[in-house]
Write a structure and sequence with these properties.
The structure is a homodimer. Chain A is mainly α. Helices cover 60% and strands 8% of the residues of chain A. Chain A has a domain of 89 residues: Arc Repressor Mutant, subunit A, CATH 1.10.10. Chain A has a 3-stranded antiparallel sheet. The longest helix of chain A is centred in the C-terminal third of the chain and has 16 residues. Chain A binds a DNA duplex through helix 5.
Chain lengths: 146, 146
DNA sequence: TATTGTTATACTCTATAACTATA
DNA sequence: TATAGTTATAGAGTATAACAATA
């Protein structure tokens, strides 16, 4: 807790606002829509499914949506041939959602679009970039787990 | 165009992904909804209106929606007493949307929520924070204007 | 004739509640 | 009875097209 009173916007706030503006100013939604005809939530789900199949329940938690929304979303992806459902081997109530080959391809293209660094970043001096890399590593270790 | 083949994710990509995950992992939507009962787009609009009144057309461009969506969104904010419309002094086709006192208050509270730096950032060493601050300043100057 | 704002309409996304089937 | 998934339904948000008023 700060003991200094009336500190004007401090460094942490200024840095946070700049970070936030830089990242949110990089809007990839149009590019994703043009390339995949999918919204950000569906691309996010495809990318997560690239790590392995998930149950509907796990999907709902992962994408922060209610179970019915997960069902509907997976229905849409299934109708487009990007995922398919199989029974869960251990529990007949559950279903596993897998990527199809087309889904894996879409996930890969989506990730390529999302991970392409913006020009301002690639134009940074390599010293700045290296320092930024180090600081971000330390930042991640200080992150409280979700 | 890269002439090195099969370069594994380079520094810029790694930094970009880390930045993106850090910022988007900080989701303020629930806090905004709890405090203001407004979605992110409406809060964004209120904050922009804090700089002065805008026409519906300007609002549509600023929030990246179509003019009809701007009309409907402003209707909702007006019904809640957060904004009001006045005729434009120079052109009777246009209307100016202003914040009411309640709207100004909501904008201020929304901005406070959005600009609160996450704990991981405030817990950084002051050296790292200062360096990050400098680098972000240089990053902004390299940003191509929108 | 072009522009500003609006209305009508439809589609997507997601939430709540009720239902089915398995455990 | 508890859980996984689904269906039905409703609400928010935004898009397209058609319209009114003004320039």
């Amino acid at each position: 807790m700060s003991t200094r009173s009336a500190t004007p916007p401090d460094t942490a706030s200024r840095v946070w606002i700049a970070l936030h503006e830089f990242v949110t100013g990089q809007d990839r939604r149009r590019a994703l829509h043009a390339a995949l005809d999918l919204g950000p939530a569906k691309v996010e789900l495809l990318i997560k499914l690239a790590d392995g199949p998930m149950t509907l329940r796990e999907i709902a938690r992962a994408v922060e949506v209610d179970p019915p929304a997960a069902t509907v979303g997976v229905d849409k992806l299934e109708a487009r041939g990007l995922v398919h459902r199989t029974p869960h081997p251990d529990d007949n109530r559950r279903k596993l959602v897998h990527l199809t080959d087309a889904g894996r391809d879409a996930a890969q293209r989506g990730q390529a679009i999302l991970s392409e660094p913006p020009p301002a970043l690639t134009n940074l001096d390599s010293d700045d970039l290296a320092r930024l890399d180090e600081i971000l590593t330390r930042l991640q270790t200080k992150r409280r787990p979700i």
